[in-house]
Amino acid sequence: MAMHVPAAPGFSQMLKEGAKHYQGLEEAVYRNISACNELTKTVKSAYGPNGMNKMVINHLGKLFVTNDAATILKELEVQHPAAKMLVMASQMQEQEVGDGTNWTLVFAGQLLTNAEELLRLGLSPTEVADGYNVALRKATEMLPDLICGAVKNMRDVAEVTRAIRPAIMSKQFGNEDFLAALIAEACIATLPERGVFNIDSVRVCKILGCGVAASSVVNGMVFKRAVEGNVARVVGAKVAAFTCPVDITTTETKGTVLIKSAAEMQDFSKGEENALESRIKAIVDTGVTVVVSGGKVGDMALHFLNKYGVMVVRLLSKFELRRLCKTIGATALPQLMPPTSEEMGFVSQAYVDEIGETPVVVFKQDSADSAVSTIVIRGSTDNIMDDIERAIDDGVNTFKAYTRDPQFVPGAGATEIELARRLIAYAETCPGLEQYAINKFGEALEVFPKTLAENAGVKVSARPSALRDVNSGRSDAEFCACS
Question: H or E segment at 203?
């Protein structure tokens, strides 16, 4: 019989068998920083308009080819606890702003690298953290001085296009002008007079074939499916939406009907048909010319709907049905019944079209303002269309950010290098050990022009120093005018 070996005294004795405990700088802190740096290196080369695409195959075997850091991290399934905190930070950035996930990761990785240098020099983690917090507050105070412009009219397509163009360029370099104009048109069409802009108001429909330049905007919704009946086009239509199947209603309990003759059989079928026809006739009498169902459409119900010239569309997703109701101003009814005037929706045109080889149903509003707009993406492969969709998502989120605060600062590393210069100068005026952390915070901001230069294939050492020389000695007004 094997002898029981007791666990070593200390904290490890309190943990379950197999658990590992690390402590101190060498065992815990430096290892965590190393893991975070490895994660940062993975996405660093994808930063900026010249960033390289990454090929990621997830656990389901699906292939992703993208330079979007949020998608890369989502599919990587990072397990390391410290690296997971960086992933959570980037996810929060994605939720709050909708863009800048790679910026967050690169900056966090560089801050940790600089913190490791300070720790090896003898500073404590608390002193480094305090210095970083002081630098953060100072940088936040400096940022308003670096504003170089603002979007004055959120309903001007040209002005909005110019503002969201840089966000598109980082994902779709070469197509930024075309896509920015599409996104601006779609966002402005759904921008409410009062209230908050909703990013779900801009939808995307991906249709394989042709090129990116064939993409377009529709004021309304586009569904990749055909109609159920014979009616393929209706103009100025009143729409009734149902979440239930459009069919003969069945009882909740099972019942048995005893039929003794053929005449009784015919009468039973006729009674069922007459009941269904009377329901559909009552719906048609309210002026409805389009019926949208969230369930199945029975053959007999479809026969009567064709008889009365009603267009029938079946939507498999309850979310699509909700968005369509929002677009046309309808209320989805839970049972087959005549809608009231308040429950009915209105659409300028509802028609079947064919884009490429794909049949689509279009609900289009002719007015300039629409509750929902759809960007129809065309592309030669699914991966290209997925990447364009991610670029559109960034553009729409950028538009939402402008509705909150229309001001912007110079890009391409200009703001970061100016902040770095000012923070390094500020660090020299600070007493105590915090000045070293503030200095390193400023140096961490220099990673962005370096990364942009590296990914663009130019000399890394020359670009940041050139930017620093250009900005030095300038006032805030001169810096913004130059940018």
Answer: strand 202-208
Query: Residue 199's CB: how many other CB atoms inside 10 A?
Result: 13
Alpha-carbon gap, residue 442 to 425, rounded angstroms: 9
Nearest to 434 by CA among 141, 139, 128, 140: 128
Q: How far is CA 233 from CA 229, 303, 349, in A?
A: 11, 17, 8
Which residues lie below 8 Å from residue 483, measured CB to CB, with a gap of 6+?
Answer: 148, 409, 410, 414, 415
pLDDT tens-digit series, residues 169-198 = 877 777 888 888 888 888 888 888 877 888
pTM: 0.76
CA–chain centroid gap for 259, Å, is 59
**Cα 295 from Cα 45, distance rounded (Å):** 47
- 10 φ/ψ sector (left φ>0, alpha ψ -120 to 50, else beta): left
Largest CA distance in the chain: 104
The pLDDT tens digits of the residues spanning 305-321 come to: 888 888 888 888 888 88
Report how far residue 284's alpha carbon sits from residue 467's, in angstroms, rounded to the nearest whole number.
70
Q: What are phi and psi of 457, to 5 degrees?
A: 85, 25
Strand partners, 288: 238
* Separation between Cα atoms, residue 405 and residue 151, nearest integer Å: 9
Q: How far is CA 148 from the centre of its chain?
A: 27
465 Ramachandran zone, left/alpha/beta (phi>0; psi -120 to 50):
alpha
Distance between CA atoms of 290 and 282, rounded to whole angstroms?
Answer: 14
Q: What is the Cα–Cα distance from 121 to 455, expressed in whole angstroms? A: 31
Classified as helix, coil or strand, 267 is helix
E strand or H helix at 427, and its extent?
helix 414-427
